[in-house]
């Protein structure tokens, strides 16, 4: 499984480069522009993938060389490998505009990466370097996917004309509410991991930037909902870090 983790970690940036060169069809930005939604983030936000890919490769190298990895690392490896593989797969699938399959793939990637990150974050006996080289990169990846999955969902709804594209606000607010619940739940399970929070805030800020300048009806509302989501996430994170820790009972005391 060590080999699978590092191979799929390396595969992601390779597939991303091929995707951006048009090898699989129109790039992600071109397709996204065809199906505008109230959840789309400003284009600059997607540069976070560079950091995600680099840090995931670092994780792959670390877990390959870690001689005394914790049991949590062993349990996280299959989830991480699957998450990396699905992340890589999503890019050509989306370029081919197989939107239904792309939606399944990105939600699968989120489930796998979040599971791996939570497993590592809740490890009571982490290995040396595990926080910086395992938990953090996977938490960052999970944080971005937690928003990207909903962005992709909105685009699929528009592409398949599931709802009226001329009045997006109602169902977009429902998706943003669901995204808020997911962010808070995963953040709680991760104990307010700063890498997860940073990725989510980066995405929410970009949604605000895009929608505050958007022309679609309801764009201003969506922009301020993104701000409210960021405030809630920050408040929860502060609470998770500042709340008193329950002390373990010691026999005889």
From TrEMBL:
Keywords per UniProt: Membrane, Transmembrane, Transmembrane helix
Signal sequence coordinates: none
Membrane-traversing stretches: 40-64, 76-93, 99-121, 133-160, 166-186, 193-209, 221-242
Matches recorded under PANTHER family: SI:CH211-161H7.5-RELATED (PTHR33802), XK-RELATED PROTEIN (PTHR33802:SF1)
Official protein name in the record: Tryptophan-rich sensory protein
